[in-house]
Amino acid sequence: MRILITNDDGINAPGLKTLHKIAEELAGPDGEVWTVAPAFEQSGVGHCISYTNPLAMAQLGDRVFTTEGSPADCVLAALYDVMPENRPDLVLSGVNRGNNAAENTLYSGTIGGAMEAALQGVPSIALSQYYGPDNAQLDDPFEAAAEHGADTVRRILAANPEESEDYRLFYNVNFPPVAAAAVKGLRTTTQGYRRGTNFSTEPHMSPSGRRFLWIRGGNQHVDTAEGTDAAANLAGYISVTPMRADLTAHDAFAAIKGQLDT
């Protein structure tokens, strides 16, 4: 198997090293693992692409490349420049430092990389490690992802339905904020919603007297509805959420169509 890995935390992020080990286990001795990752942290860029700016590319080693762009840029660079004649069989994005459950999904560059791969017709999975008091101080906070990552990906690939839709499936995986031995299992979930929590801004003054705003996240340990991603993670389970890039509100479509169409 030929696997491409990327992330949004940057080429030197510890989660990317964890992902490389997961990919090596999946690829096997006869497989290949290619890395195309951002030169700098790109957290929160979502599905952004550098449409109006050129991308500086650099090769750092055998099958290891970096670009000054977003995770989606990295996937495009890999597919059309780095390995155009030998496309990957699978794209893995992560392992993100922190969860990409619930509303975080909409901001995540990790998700953006997987989404771009799906739009390009390549199977893809985003992987993120939830942080909390039970794992943040471990020698390896990515322990749960490292221990359970390869098996989770294998199970997803084995269960992945054949499809011909224009917007292909990709998967959002979040590992719970616990040590590897405390992981209870795997749950297929929908995307949750943390009520009463959201991103916001916090003003600060620089020593020169200029006013700046920092973006602040909300409480990541607010529970979500039963059967959703964050609820499963906070209960100790790995969540797997199948997704598409189609943003149509299909549940509301018929009612709105009946009111608007003439």
From TrEMBL:
SUPFAM superfamilies: SurE-like. Its main location: cytoplasm. One of its GO terms (cellular component) is cytoplasm. It catalyses: a ribonucleoside 5'-phosphate + H2O = a ribonucleoside + phosphate. It is found in: Cytoplasm. Residues 3-195 form the Survival protein SurE-like phosphatase/nucleotidase domain. GO terms for molecular function: 3'-nucleotidase activity; 5'-nucleotidase activity; exopolyphosphatase activity; metal ion binding; nucleotide binding. It is an enzyme of class 3 (hydrolase). Belongs to the SurE nucleotidase family. Nucleotidase that shows phosphatase activity on nucleoside 5'-monophosphates. This is 5'-nucleotidase SurE. The gene is surE.
